[in-house]
Amino acid sequence: MLGHTGILGTLSARSDLCYVLGLISKAWYNDLRKFAEIRNTVAHHHLQLSFDNEDIAKQCNELSTIELIGTGPEQMTPRTRFTVCVAMLANWLLITALQIKQKLNVTSPRDRRLIRYNTSPPPE
Q1: Which residue, among 20, 31, 42, has the nearest Cα to 66 in the 3D structure?
Q2: In 53-87, which positions are buried (b, 16+ CB within 10 angstroms) versus exposed (e)?
């Protein structure tokens, strides 16, 4: 399922699943979609791109997760904004997974109790 040809093999599919399960807010879901856009822009461009590229910088400045710490696009570089957003979201997902594991005393990712578990998303 998680392999590159599996049903959850893409960032888009995994983002959709996290949002539908209530693990992330709509704002964070939109940021995950923006990460995928940035990745696709870089991967499918015939020249080497950097965060200084106008399109990449614009996409990074549209990331909203960073606003939780009160920092606007003018206060940090697009690369820093991207990196901080990725780190914040990765940490949120890790903490959420650990909370679920601890609450249910899960020993295997195939535990059927995970299917029925619902957690509240982060504030928008």
Answers
A1: 31
A2: beebbebbeebebbeeeeeebeebebeebbebbee
Amino acid at 13: A
Question: CA 120, CA 1: separation in Å to the nearest integer?
Answer: 25
Write out pLDDT tens, residues 34-82.
Answer: 988 888 888 877 777 888 888 888 998 888 877 777 766 677 888 888 8
Retrieve residue 49's tokens: 């791109």
The interaxial angle of helices 54-61 and 26-43, nearest 10 deg, is 170
Distance CA 23, CA 89 (A): 11
Three-state SS for 20? helix
User: What CA–CA distances, in Å, run from 45 to 49, 60, 124?
Assistant: 8, 17, 33
